[in-house]
Amino acid sequence: MTTAVRRAVRARSWTAVAGCCAALALSAGCAASGDGVQAATPPPPEPSPSDEEAAALAAYTGMWDTVVAASHEGGGVPADLEDHAAGGALVLMSTALEGARAAGAKVTGEPVLDPSVEVGGSDRATVDDCLDDSDWNLGVGSSTGEGPRRVEATLIHDGLAWRVSDLRIWEAGSC
Question: Domain extents for the chain?
Fold first, then answer.
């Protein structure tokens, strides 16, 4: 997971924990007062992602983490990319890394992800993302500063793990 994604997930987790603690404190305080006044029911906490959603999201962000790390190391295709990607997504990312290596591009920075996942059954999930690659300098073909790119990913579960199978990255400014 990228640093930005980790921070966002951590912030949401702490917000949910703080909200639950506040709700418990309010309900305990109102129950103990005994003055007959009923407190308003706090809204239910935001639902946490299911284990399958979290696993699918981890495969998606793991793919990007692997690609970013490999791009900084010279663009060769790392063997562990297959742990996160298969099919067309594996071909697309491998081709991009090989192209960066062949061009001798000096890659710096990293993209910022903002993914959302939806699991559609036990073996299929989709991720919609808004990829900001403005700080990820890829040399040739880097972002033109036109804004984040829309990314659509399909993930499959092969019985062992989630893997990104199809990946479509739209032009800059499509998000």
Answer: 1-48, 49-172
Model-level pTM?
0.70
Task: Report pLDDT digits (tens) over 52-63.
Answer: 999 999 999 999
| Contacts with 170 (C-beta within 8 Å, 6 or more apart), sequence order | 149, 150, 151, 152
**Residue 150 near residue 175, CB atoms below 8 Å:** yes
Q: What number does CATH give the domain 49-172?
A: 3.10.450.50
State how far the Cα of 127 lies from the Cα of 56, in Å rounded to an integer: 8
Helix (H, G, I), strand (E, B) or coil at 168: strand
User: Of all residues in the chain, what percent carry a pLDDT higher than 90?
Assistant: 53
Report how far apart, in Å, the C-alpha atoms of 89 and of each of 16, 84, 130, 145, 154 are. Answer: 34, 9, 17, 25, 9
